[in-house]
Write a structure and sequence with these properties.
Layout: H1 3-6, H2 10-33, H3 42-66, H4 71-95
């Protein structure tokens, strides 16, 4: 199965979309409010947490469904999903948000 065919399945592209949405949430928060520490976490932090946490069961489902049949291609997709998640995590930790 070609790698492109995997991305027709929501369990392959949903974690990528969620990571990019989480990254966009952080970037919009930084543009709008800056990097100053706040007393309350705020809506942006809660949205980011929900998006990042909700990816885990989707990725687990993807691995369970597609991993045994197509290990090489599914590992590539999981690597892309993990890379996107790390890209969304990086600004939070680097900026101390």
């Amino acid at each position: 199965m070609a790698l492109r065919r995997f991305f027709r399945h929501p369990s392959a592209f949903a974690p990528l979309a969620m990571s990019f949405a989480a990254l966009a949430t952080v970037l919009l928060h930084v543009i709008r409010f800056g990097t100053a520490r706040e007393v309350d976490e705020g809506t942006s932090a809660h949205i980011w947490q929900l998006l990042m946490g909700a990816q885990l069961p989707v990725i687990a489902f993807f691995v369970a469904k597609w991993g045994p049949g197509n290990p090489k291609e599914s590992l590539t997709v999981v690597a892309l999903q993990v890379t996107a998640a790390l890209a969304a995590l990086a600004p939070v930790f680097l900026l101390g948000l």
